[in-house]
């Protein structure tokens, strides 16, 4: 431990002020900020990670700030990783599509640590990331899906119509009418299946 005092000359007299009678450096650490902060964005989340000295990794805690690129840090959002692992994830639902974001991180000794105590480090360098826009379905894809949804009810309705029409026309020529209508219906189904492919 150390004894910290301030000495000065006030009104022509020399004074000594004891600031810390017993100063333990292990309880007043200020760490360097984390290094090499990087990010990677997928469809569901943004992963951010950074580096710290290996011998400190297990006793540190972190605080991450992120914000839209063009706004002030004063309105940034804060996140705390659940463990001492130097990484964190942001869900894609927390990010606006097509907007650039910037993030930074700082560290200090964990509150659970008995032997060492520290204040927050300065903020690290920043990393920039952006959630990809949701791709729009093409007009052709939409048309194909619409045809697929309409195919079954239309086919069923056509079949009912043919059966009903056959019953009415069986009195006139049952041997000729039904095969022709069935052949026409089969042809329409084959054509529709070809369009959907």
Key terms:
197 residues; alpha+beta; Immunoglobulin-like; four-stranded antiparallel beta sheet; three-stranded antiparallel beta sheet; 2 helices; 27% helix; Hempt_rcpt_S_F1_CS; glycoprotein
CATH architecture of the domain at 29-131: Sandwich
Q: Main sheet?
A: 4 strands, antiparallel
Structure summary, number of beta strands: 11
Helix content estimate: 25-40%
Instruction: Write the element-wise H/E pattern from the N-terminal end onward.
Output: EEEEEEEEEEEHH
CATH fold naming of the domain at 29-131: Immunoglobulin-like
CATH superfamily of the domain at 29-131: Immunoglobulins
Number of helices: 2
Q: What form results from the Cα inertia axes?
A: rod-shaped
Low-confidence stretches: 135-139
Report the CATH C-level class of the domain at 29-131: Mainly Beta
In short:
Residues 33-132 form the Fibronectin type-III domain. The protein has 197 residues and is of the alpha+beta class.
Overview of the structural elements:
Residues 33-132 form the Fibronectin type-III domain. GO terms for molecular function: cytokine receptor activity. Its main location: membrane. This is IL9R protein. The chain is α+β, with helices and mostly antiparallel strands and 197 residues long. It has a domain at 29-131: Immunoglobulin-like, CATH 2.60.40.10. 27% of the residues lie in helices and 35% in strands. The chain has helices spanning 139-169, 174-196, and strands spanning 2-10, 13-23, 29-30, 35-41, 45-51, 60-68, 77-79, 87-91, 100-109, 118-119, 127-130. The protein has a four-stranded antiparallel beta sheet with strand order 7-6-9-11, with no helix packed on it. Strand 6 (60-68) and strand 7 (77-79) form a beta hairpin. The longest helix is centred in the last third of the chain and has 31 residues, at 139-169. Mean pLDDT is 78; it is low at 135-139.
């Amino acid at each position: 431990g150390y004894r910290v005092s301030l000495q000065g000359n006030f009104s022509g007299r020399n004074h000594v002020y004891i600031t810390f009678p017993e100063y333990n450096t292990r309880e007043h650490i200020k760490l360097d900020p984390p290094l090499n902060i990087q990010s990677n964005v997928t469809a569901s989340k943004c992963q951010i990670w950074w580096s710290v000295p290996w011998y400190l990794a297990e006793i540190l805690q972190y605080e991450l700030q992120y914000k839209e690129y063009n706004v002030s840090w004063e309105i940034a959002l804060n996140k705390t990783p659940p463990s001492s692992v130097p990484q964190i994830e942001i869900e894609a639902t927390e990010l606006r599509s097509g907007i650039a974001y910037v993030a930074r991180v700082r560290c200090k000794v964990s509150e659970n640590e008995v032997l060492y105590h520290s204040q927050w480090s300065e903020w690290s360098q920043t990393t920039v990331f952006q959630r990809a826009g949701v791709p729009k379905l093409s007009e052709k894809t939409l048309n194909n899906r619409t045809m697929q949804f309409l195919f079954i009810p239309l086919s069923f309705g056509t079949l009912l119509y043919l059966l009903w029409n056959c019953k009415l026309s069986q009195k006139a020529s049952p041997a000729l009418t039904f095969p022709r209508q069935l052949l026409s219906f089969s042809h329409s189904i084959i054509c529709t299946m070809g369009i959907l492919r």
